[in-house]
Amino acid sequence: MALDAETQAFLDLAEAEIAPWTAARAAERDLPIPTQALAGVIDNVALLRAQTRLFIDALGEAAGQTPEPFQP
Amino acid sequence: MSFLSAFEIAAQVRDGDVTARAITEATLASIEKRDGALNAFTAVTADRALAAADAVDAARAAGRPLGPLAGVPFAVKNLFDIEGLPTLAGSKIRRETAPPARDATLVQRLTVAGAILVGALNMDEFAYGFVTENAHDGPVRNPHDPTRIAGGSSGGSAAAVSAGLVPLSLGSDTNGSIRIPAGLCGVFGLKPTYGRLSRQGVFPFVESLDHVGPFARSVEELALAYDVLQGPDPDGDAICVRDADPLAGRLDTLAEHPLRVGVLDGWFQQGAFPEVLEALEQVAQALSADRSVTLPGAQAARAAAFCLTAFEGGELHHDDLAARAMDYDPAVRDRLLAGALLPKGVAQAARRYRTIFRDQVAEVFQRYDVLLAPASVCPAPPIGQATMEMDGVPVSVRKNLGAFTQPISYIGLPVVAAPVNRPGRLPIGVQIIAPPWREDLAFAAALRLQRAGVAAAHPPKAFA
Predict the structure, then answer these.
(1) Distance, in angstroms, between B355 CA and closest chain A CA?
(2) Do A62 and B358 touch (CB under 8 A)?
């Protein structure tokens, strides 16, 4: 099952697209980002995108599946 | 008095050799005198402690039975509800919130057992970090070297026990926040199975990953606290439904049974400092662990935990971030803001991978009783150090100290963090990881290490 479009678009962001994506997404989420925080937030978004790629790759075809309820 | 064990204190109080009030007064005096060098406490509950101590003494005088922790001082990370005290969770924005009307379930359970709450402890803001360099309350200093961090996010909880200010404390662990400070401060810590101990009255961070547990200076004290804390609390915490599985009376026997022990390699050793690997080897030899175990999904599991944390943390704080972002600790704020922007599909995928990785690890536990891994990449870094090297690459200390702990809490496995016996050197901790609901196996291995002199919590020189 494929990933939803929003998640796929996040994964497909090029490095140069992260800053504009962050601004657009913050507006969409009604979450103003203070100027002093912007650079740090962009760095963190880039890191999260790289980390997301790791487990999406590991999931393969299962990436878009609904998760099962978790029990240890 | 400082380094008396919980057992010694409770026995002396029960036998009438000392009053609970005298123990409490000495504890409060010690905190007053010594915590300035550590910054472990953010509040001291002196009046409450003395009243509770008097109640214990009155019960004894009246011939009523005393609990197993009669007169034993303890303190809790400041995200646990304490009646009458705002639950800070390390933040500035919660300082004006109304104090809770009752204690968190685990605080209540320790109190019913006769323990005396003496205060609340410093932590990373909202538990998001591994360093306890709190922008509002200042850093917690490592009792073994005050120029270094105590680890986090339960840094105050580990430092207070390590320095002998209290014999027991409580912390929380979402990604490593009990195991890392326990290791860096040289004490024992328990991160139980996800759902084993009640989180009622504990300020949340990541509902899917939050655990709570105790710190102590010996395996036996950790087990004593664990037994008192266990038991279902379905009205307070929906995932805490498991019947208690007490260790009392069976820990000795368990420790004598053969254990099949594996050592996690690959991700769990990548970038580890040489002294960390040396300590791990020392523990492996003591437990006759001669086989390495690879969990191929560990890096992806760590990544999934990392993103799920950011997503759920961001969701939880969305409204406060929108209104008061500049009142957050900058290091935490930027991470939460980024998490709040993540698409929901990222969290869904992170949750999806969780059961896949759980099943991979369950397969490994068919062949092993416990698995070993370092608690952290390195011994305690200096306060203020932003980056460290892992495999020659500079990475953020705050984000990477938990590289070896995150895959394990992601799937909710129980872990005893044990301090390796390295007198005169900076502490290093090892994770003893057991299958779900088998805390007893992790305790058994830890007790065996302690008896062999391979694990030990040394009083720091400055506090001995």
Answers:
(1) 7
(2) no
Q: Which two tokens stand for residue B173?
A: 């662990």
Phi and psi angles of residue B270, each rounded to the nearest 5 degrees, phi first: -65, 120
- CB contact under 8 Å between B306 and A48, yes or no, is yes
Range of the domain at A51: 5-62
Q: Which residues of B touch A6 (CB under 8 A)?
A: 343-345
Q: How far apart are CA B30 and CA B2, in angstroms?
A: 8
Q: Does residue A67 lie in a domain region?
A: no
Q: Does residue A72 lie within any of the structural domains?
A: no
**Three-class secondary structure assignment of B431-442:** EEECCCCCHHHH
Q: How far apart are CA B379 and CA B224, in angstroms?
A: 28
CA distance B300 to chain A (A): 5
Contacts of B300 in chain A (CB under 8 A): 54-55, 57-59
* pTM (two decimals): 0.98
Within a domain: residue A13?
yes
Whether B77 is catalytic is yes
pLDDT mean values, one per 10 residues, chain B (464 residues)? 92 98 98 98 98 98 98 98 98 97 98 98 98 98 98 98 98 98 98 98 98 98 98 96 96 92 97 97 96 96 98 98 98 97 98 97 98 97 94 88 97 98 96 98 98 97 89
Closest by alpha carbon to A43, among B243, B331, B424, B255?
Answer: B331
Spatial contact of B114 and B47, defined as CB atoms under 8 Å apart: no
ipTM greater than 0.85, yes or no?
yes
- The number of distinct structural domains making up chain A is 1
On whether residue A68 sits in a domain, the answer given is: no
**Phi and psi torsions of B374, nearest 5°:** -65, 150
Contact B337 A10 (CB under 8 A): no
B contacts of A33 (beta carbons < 8 Å): 325, 337
Query: Which of B359, B394, B343, B336 lies closest to A52 in space, CA to CA?
Result: B343
CA distance B141 to B302: 28
pLDDT band at A1 (very low <50, low <70, confident <90, very high): low
Partner-chain contact A72 B303, CB within 8 Å: no
